[in-house]
Amino acid sequence: MVLNIVSSSIIFQPWRLILKLSLLCWFFYRSLVSGRKSINGFTLDLIHRDSLLSPYHDPSNTPSERLQKAFHRSFSWASFFGVKCVHSIKSTLTPNEGEFLMKISIGTPPIDTFVIADTGSDLTWTQCKPCVNCFKQLTPIFNPKNSSSYKTIGCHNKLCQGSLCNNNRCNYEVSYGDLSQTMGDLSIETFTFASSSGKHVSIPNIVFGCGHDNGGSFTNVTSGIIGLGGGNVSIVNQMHHEIKGKFTYCLIPLELLLDSSNATSHINFGDNVIVKDGTYGGLDLCYESNENGIIDVPKIVAHFTNADLELSTSNIFTQVEEGIVCLTIVPGGNQISILGNMAQANFLIGYDL
Description:
The chain is mainly beta. The chain is 10% helix and 30% strand.
């Protein structure tokens, strides 16, 4: 059986990326991270573009309309599987259908912008002035001339070996399977993240693409992409000194967004990635219930020799706290199965030796 699962988050679906830079194979240069302050970890919001917290939230859209658009975005990414690519590096982002945005600040002083969070590509880039060709974006386009921490990478820099150069500036070019593309200067800048703890986290010497020629199917809700992939140029590896390569994220369900909820997705970096929010005394499979601890579950039957025992919900689920019930069937760790007293409750149990 093949299941077609509708997802509102196209950003994490596979498609193809072509990077025409041989330097990206060893892009993370450790001298760039020397002298950084120690950071234990931080957590950021992942903002669905339909949520109330998104600056691009459209209150005129009904829940049904949002759902239909999500269906359209979910199914449309499949068309990219058929794109033929002859280059060596691929990625998993459809830029025009990206759903989850990260708010970051670039430069000194920091300029706020929204970028698509992408676990499938490596290069982080944003649109930059002067624009030879830029798509429309709702936030101001980053002007590197206004930043005191902006630096271009020169042609003789080790990071630029094998790459194109123009006026002693190392150039990059990225093209996507749907013919979207970005080109510009390979540069270094300070990135600032507004952690949900209230403390800003600033990290200098981040290598990124300052895009002067960008186009295709990008929409105005973003200025570029933040690459969270596994390659050396990924911002995850560039921040290795701070986060040790660790991050987690939790995406809120689509139905909460359709109900115009204030629920927010989060992405955690560094020491904040410890997964805790669902085990109760070894019971790991837990569900929300009504106020009486009741949930709607399918019929469960224990099959014995010549006898079937149909169990009720109270035989196999227990309320561990108000509004939370957990499955009480757990692995025994040996070859013996035990029908415990909870499963025996409300039955007349008789023994005949």
